[in-house]
């Protein structure tokens, strides 16, 4: 049987993953001396509450190879093929950790994909993979299709406050302070597996307008969902969704970003995930 595996950087709900038979391997989140399994031992609301109220910047850590090996050994014992769609290797060492476990398992039925993306973009990939499996596709056909799909998934996030980018080491204190003073709202994306700044806007209204222009400019593949995404607080997202839907573009769902990316982007971040059509 063909089965799927994700890490918590996918933001796949652990209960939904269980219902669908998807193996779920959590990253860890640490505040001071308190360490939690992401998606299992700490909820998103609890995570953002602590991040808002505490001075300590939370740290994330990739799963150990043993956590993946446990999944692989079970698949090996059952004779299952397993497709792991992992958080981008340019963001985390999770993909590397899974590959170490694959070598330890010594089993040819393990197929790992560096998604080159994060959060609900991985959910889109896995849900599509399960659809292909249910249509009778082989494991090699599914892997090939997902490898092709990942290059067409676009994540765009407008950062409302630069403090977390500074605390996470992605900006200097001076850069963050000046940016916040100027009401700078950068839009970040993950086009090749690493976070980049796609655009810079002054003020929330212009950031919303910028995101609207990005999604309007896409040649959307209507076979796939469009997701609105947010970190902590929905006011910015609500205003963005309203503007997008005025253009005749409808969101399938709106989801909250989990700790893996939420740690770096901070509160009131908002944006979208969508899939472009393949280029001929």
UniProtKB/TrEMBL annotation:
Q: Which UniProt keywords apply?
A: Lipid-binding
Q: Name one GO molecular function term.
A: lipid binding
Q: Which InterPro entries match?
A: DegV, DegV_C, DegV_domain_contain
Residue intervals passing through the bilayer: none
- Hydrolase listed as a keyword: no
Q: Which PROSITE patterns match?
A: DEGV
This one is known as: DegV family protein
Please name the taxonomic classification of the source: Bacteria, Bacillati, Bacillota, Clostridia, Eubacteriales
């Amino acid at each position: 049987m063909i089965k799927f595996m994700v890490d918590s950087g996918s933001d796949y709900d652990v209960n939904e993953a269980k219902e669908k038979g998807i193996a779920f391997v959590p990253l860890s989140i640490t505040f001071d001396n308190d360490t939690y399994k992401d998606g299992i031992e700490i909820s998103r609301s609890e995570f953002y509450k602590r991040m808002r109220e505490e001075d300590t910047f939370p740290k994330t850590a990739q799963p150990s190879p043993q956590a993946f090996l446990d999944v692989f050994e079970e698949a090996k014992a059952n004779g299952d093929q397993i497709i792991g769609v992992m958080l981008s290797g340019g963001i985390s060492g999770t993909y590397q950790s899974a590959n170490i476990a694959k070598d330890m398992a010594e089993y040819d039925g393990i197929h790992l994909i560096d998604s080159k993306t994060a959060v609900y973009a991985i959910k889109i990939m896995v849900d599509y993979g399960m659809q292909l499996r249910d249509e009778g596709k082989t494991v090699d056909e599914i892997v090939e299709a997902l490898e092709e799909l990942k290059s067409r998934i676009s994540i765009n996030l407008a950062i409302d406050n630069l403090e977390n980018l500074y605390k996470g080491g992605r900006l200097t204190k001076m850069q963050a302070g000046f940016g916040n003073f100027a009401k700078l709202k950068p839009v970040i994306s993950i086009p090749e597996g690493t976070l980049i700044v796609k655009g810079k806007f002054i003020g929330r209204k212009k950031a919303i307008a910028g995101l609207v222009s990005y999604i309007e400019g896409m040649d959307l593949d209507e076979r796939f969902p469009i997701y609105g995404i947010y970190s902590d607080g929905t006011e910015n997202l609500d205003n963005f969704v309203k503007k997008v839907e005025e253009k005749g573009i409808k969101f399938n769902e709106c989801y909250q970003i989990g700790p893996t990316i939420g740690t770096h982007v901070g509160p009131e971040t908002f944006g979208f995930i969508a899939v472009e059509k393949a280029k001929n």
